[in-house]
Amino acid sequence: MPLAPRPLTPTDLPAALALNNAAAPHVNVLDADGLARLWAWAAVALGARGDDGGLLGFLLALPPDLPYDSANYRWVVGRRPQFLYVDRVVVTPGARGRGVGRALYRAALDAARCEGYASVVCEVNERPPNPGSLAFHAALGFGVIGRCDHGPHDKAVVFLERAGAA
Predict the structure, then answer these.
(1) For the chain, does the N or the C end have fewer beta carbons within 10 angstroms?
(2) Chain segment 103-150, per-residue pLDDT in tens
(3) Where does the N-acetyltransferase domain start and stop, copy by copy (predicted)?
């Protein structure tokens, strides 16, 4: 099934919120206001839809100059000058392995290149472990640039980067 991600719109946000929160703990749970704020800040906000128009997945990527109170985002801001930060990419379980995530990332990488970002950066949980996401990002050419352990009762993440967006 060839996918052509389209801009994520305000009418997509309820479905995106449901997908996001069903994917916990691999992404942080959000309320409607939190998702709307990330969507409004996003330099890239994409959705992939199935033949029935239902949302199969979405990606939100942020520029480096936001007042975003995320320890992971702040970690990247302090270490990379010009980046596009993938805050979250979520694919519904039934669509995994069908190219949805790859199509979302391909479109985000194209947008990053067109907008002149030096790299695309994200983080993936190491605690709780998310080996599928680590393998997915490695296959897309992302490499490790650092790690952050938020404490024994919280998440530990690995930061990944793909330099050049082409």
Answers:
(1) C
(2) 999 999 999 999 999 999 999 999 999 999 999 999 999 999 999 998
(3) 3-164
Detail the DSSP E strand segments found in the chain: 6-7, 44-49, 55-62, 83-91, 119-127, 143-149, 156-163
Question: Which overall architecture, per CATH, does domain 6-163 show?
Answer: 3-Layer(aba) Sandwich (3.40)
**In whole angstroms, what is the distance from residue 154 CA to residue 151 CA?**
5
Q: Residues 76-102: what's their mean pLDDT?
A: 94
List of long-range contacts for 71-76, beta carbons under 8 Å, 24+ apart? 71/148, 71/150, 72/123, 72/148, 72/157, 72/159, 75/146, 75/148, 75/159, 76/121, 76/123, 76/159
Res. 81: pLDDT tops 90: no
Helix orientation angle between 32-41 and 13-22, rounded to the nearest 10 degrees: 110
Q: Does residue 143 contact residue 123 with C-beta atoms inside 8 Å? A: no
